[in-house]
Amino acid sequence: MNRTKPKYKQIIDAAVIVIAENGYHQSQVSKIAKQAGVADGTIYLYFKNKEDILVSLFQEKLGAFIETIQEEINGKSFAADKLLTLIENHFSQLAADFHLAVVTQLELRQSNKELRHRINDVLKGYLVVVDSIIKSGIESGEFSEELDVRLARQMIFGTIDETVTTWVMNEQRYDLVGLSKQVHHLLISGCGVAQPVK
């Protein structure tokens, strides 16, 4: 199976639309095939089943996002700037594709334990980037050396993730990207070098 083939990406993009509009459970493979403009059987040349499509689209979209983010933060000297870049990119990518935002924030939260496990495996690459930002901030003295990296990662990812989920649930009634600096300020305040107690 060649994941660089146009039909693979065609099916992924079609799946994002169909799942966002119908919900994961109501999105039959035949609907995805129709949206992609391919025969039902073609889907099975690339994916085992609908669950595989969902995990693959997350892998594809998140993988591209991680590459972009990594390139952009490599050009930044300060951890605070790297974190702002991460937040702005996360928000702008999902603000630009509401279907994708619905899928990542609502439809990926499935009760199926095995599916959640596979999605968490894909998410690890993103969390590695967050960890690298936190560690560089501790090393440079921007963040407190007492900061627990795992806890800080949960705080950062959880805040970004919940902000997007709330925006999706509110049907894009406000500017998501416009919240980047406020979210950044809150997170930096939480990670910042502890002030001496007076």
UniProtKB/TrEMBL annotation:
- Locate the HTH tetR-type domain: which residues? 5-65
Q: Name one GO molecular function term.
A: DNA binding
DNA-binding region extent: 28-47
Q: Which InterPro entries match?
A: Homeodomain-like_sf, HTH-type_Tx_Regulator, HTH_TetR, Tet_transcr_reg_TetR-rel_C_sf, Tscrpt_reg_YsiA_C
Q: Enumerate the UniProt keywords alphabetically.
A: DNA-binding, Repressor
Q: Which SUPFAM superfamilies match?
A: Homeodomain-like, Tetracyclin repressor-like, C-terminal domain
- Transmembrane spans: none
The family database entries (PANTHER family) matched by this protein are listed as:
ACREF/ENVCD OPERON REPRESSOR-RELATED, ACREF_ENVCD OPERON REPRESSOR-RELATED
Which named protein is this?
Answer: Transcriptional regulator, TetR family
**Organism the protein comes from:** Litchfieldia salsa
Taxonomic lineage: Bacteria, Bacillati, Bacillota, Bacilli, Bacillales
